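job 3f2a | input accepted
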Amino acid sequence: MLRQIIFLFVSFPLFIFSQSVDKVNLYLDCSFLCDEDYLIREMPFINFMREASDSHVQVLVNSENSASGGKRLSFRFIGLNEFEGKEDEYYSSIEPNASEEEERLEVLDMLQKGLLSYVLRSQVASQLKLEYTKIDSVKEDSVEDIDKWRNWIFSTNVSGWLNAEKGYKNQNYNSSISINKITDNIKFLSRFRLGSSQINYDYTDYQLETKTKSTLADFTFVKSVAPKFSVGALSTISRNTYSNYKLKFRFTPSIEYNIYPYKESSEHRLSLLYGVGAGYNDYIDSTIYLKTKETFPYHTFQFKFENIQKWGSLGLNLYGLQILKIDDMDKYYFNLSANVNWKVVKGLSLSFWTWATLNRAQISLVKGDVSSEDILTRQRELESNYSYHMNFGLSYTFGSTKNTIVNSRF
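job 3f2a | predicted structure (410 res):
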């Protein structure tokens, strides 16, 4: 009864305003997280629009990985036009093993709750019916539930794929185990992975079999020092026949500073990470530098910028590593990735994504000539100072601004 009274007390001021719109126009910015056809069917009291400028409210839905391996969803409700200046933000959690049905029900529930204060100021408000489900309250003398796992999460995965036709077969198998613990103050991540790939060519005048194997164990430990500052370490142990590693070890104590508080990561991030570490390589074959084993220091940095707003989103990630040797400081690696999704004007949007690498630290390359089979089948890492990928798109849509009809025939 108390909850009902509180709800009516909070909602009453909304009714004293004149109901300013016939039906709330919604622009949903949810990318791949939302089943929009399903939401249109389940919320007939809302007009779904193709453009934010024609809407009364814009909803930005963002997803982040949670400590349990599930998702933490943020819902930002931004008032537009008649509701300019009104803004709310709510959060929801998705369990790691949730089905698609459970995920879309959770999204629907959060959207309905977040849109309620807008709908109450529309003509549709008189057609709504409020339902209240009573949940048995916990007795005051009951013992608080204790997490017997103490925030530890264990996950396993086995996968593979096979592609075959006459004279050709391609097999890939992967398995992994992760053990993680995430709280407000610490973050511990570990992953163990095995992978193998085998390709067979069996033709009348040509036979070839290629194999690559990889083993990986990596660890991350981070401790929160302040709302914007963290310290920790990263470590990796691996074996990879493609890159000529019998054993590869890295250990990197690091610090990170974020201009914005970490709790605002669903909206924006501007952080810089710096670390100084030690590396050890044990090679399968002698390298072009006549090494079979070597130990070396290095330093690394990473700059991250992410911004998600009603005009779109912008992301930039710059990572760099340099091997520290007094007689040779020219061994370095840089990777830059950037993405832009920009709603330029009504109906016009621009998307851009790029990834580029400058690699002058290929110290594991095998000495000697590489066979033509290894080159064509890419079974061995080859010398390459750079690599890049890029895609972009420009779209323009015009016509009816409403997006409220679902027709799934054919």
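job 3f2a | Confidence is low (pLDDT under 50) at residues 1-18, 139-144.
job 3f2a | closed
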